[in-house]
Amino acid sequence: MSLLIYAESADGKFKKVAFEIASYAKKVAESIGTTVTAVTVNTADVSELSKYGVDKVLKVSNDKLSTFNAKAYADVIKQAAQKEGAKVIVLSSTTDSIYLAPFVAVGLEAGFASNVVGLPLSTSPFQVKRNAFSNKAFNITEISTDVKVLGLAKNSYGIVESNSSLSSEDFLPSLNDADFTIKVENVEKITGQVTIADAEVVISGGRGLKGPENWGLVEDLAAVLGAATACSKPVSDLGWRPHSEHVGQTGKPVATNLYIAIGISGAIQHIAGINSSKVKVVINSDPEAPFFKVADYGVVGDAFEIVPKLTQKLKEF
Ligand code: FAD
């Protein structure tokens, strides 16, 4: 028996979340007296996993899996779990993993808990703490099935280094046409930018920036900090920015170390999606803007004056 993680990668390289769930799984595995096995798809170099306590990696190389396909990937994870006799399977909470996890759980007749934060409160019975109500509350969930699938909330555990002597083997799951009933017709890649999912820092702009022609402010600050760019919903609805940047309750969730909101009022639907970020900084000309109530640091003033100065100062470091 081993604990299995799905170590996500993109363009042949592990995503950072893979290291977070490896770190988490290592600790859970210790508490239930087992080892950590990772399964990964089309990842060129798997050796990095040895820094985060993974004992074994199952490498899947298959051209048919070069584009993410939830059903097929879920079948790969299911077969890996069955091969290893895994009773606990840990996935992250990226868009892909959120999509995958229910398929994996159904395939293994497993109980599934999403949005898990922290280590299991108890392993017998198996109880985990989960974010609820857009991260405003927690609930305690007990999973009573033999096999358990956990979706770890992003950036909730962190990356912890612990060396292991990693072994790796090629894994050839058997896939058939039924695995590919979801057809991916087109994939548009965002290039040259840090993605919101992988970013440590996100710089987000709202309607206070007046128009798309002013987004240089956001992009320049993001470039200095190696950050991803994001926006409020109206900004993407207006077509100022692509929908892939829309964050909030109905957009992408953000759980970064630093979230800087520029010209965003802080409506409840926006806050719901970003309030798991560790440090929130708000720049807004209206001292009554609701965002200031949840901010760790706030600057009251005109973004068009403040942001270029901030970017310049950071460049000088
Ligand atoms: P505004 O509310 O127009 O605020 C602009 C802010 O910029 C103001 O606070 C203003 O003081 C400030 N400002 C103006 N000029 C300057 C300046 N020169 N310098 C600095 N600050 C300045 N919204 C989301 O973002 N994400 C969601 O997922 C989301 N989901 C929703 C779901 C539903 C069902 C509904 C009903 C709404 C949802 N919304 C969502 C919309 C949300 O309610 C707000 O309307 C939206 O977040 C407001 O966007 P904003 O802050 O960019 O714009």
Automatic annotation (TrEMBL):
<dbReference type="GO" id="GO:0009055">
    <property type="term" value="F:electron transfer activity"/>
</dbReference>
<keyword id="KW-0285">Flavoprotein</keyword>
<keyword id="KW-0813">Transport</keyword>
<dbReference type="GO" id="GO:0033539">
    <property type="term" value="P:fatty acid beta-oxidation using acyl-CoA dehydrogenase"/>
</dbReference>
<feature type="binding site">
    <location>
        <begin position="263"/>
        <end position="270"/>
    </location>
    <ligand>
        <name>FAD</name>
    </ligand>
</feature>
<dbReference type="InterPro" id="IPR029035">
    <property type="entry name" value="DHS-like_NAD/FAD-binding_dom"/>
</dbReference>
<dbReference type="InterPro" id="IPR001308">
    <property type="entry name" value="ETF_a/FixB"/>
</dbReference>
<dbReference type="InterPro" id="IPR014729">
    <property type="entry name" value="Rossmann-like_a/b/a_fold"/>
</dbReference>
<dbReference type="Pfam" id="PF00766">
    <property type="entry name" value="ETF_alpha"/>
</dbReference>
<feature type="binding site">
    <location>
        <position position="284"/>
    </location>
    <ligand>
        <name>FAD</name>
    </ligand>
</feature>
<protein>
    <submittedName>
        <fullName>Electron transfer flavoprotein alpha subunit apoprotein</fullName>
    </submittedName>
</protein>
<feature type="domain" description="Electron transfer flavoprotein alpha/beta-subunit N-terminal">
    <location>
        <begin position="3"/>
        <end position="194"/>
    </location>
</feature>
<dbReference type="InterPro" id="IPR014730">
    <property type="entry name" value="ETF_a/b_N"/>
</dbReference>
<feature type="binding site">
    <location>
        <position position="207"/>
    </location>
    <ligand>
        <name>FAD</name>
    </ligand>
</feature>
<dbReference type="InterPro" id="IPR014731">
    <property type="entry name" value="ETF_asu_C"/>
</dbReference>
<keyword id="KW-0249">Electron transport</keyword>
<keyword id="KW-0274">FAD</keyword>
<comment type="similarity">
    <text>Belongs to the ETF alpha-subunit/FixB family.</text>
</comment>
<dbReference type="Pfam" id="PF01012">
    <property type="entry name" value="ETF"/>
</dbReference>
<dbReference type="GO" id="GO:0050660">
    <property type="term" value="F:flavin adenine dinucleotide binding"/>
</dbReference>
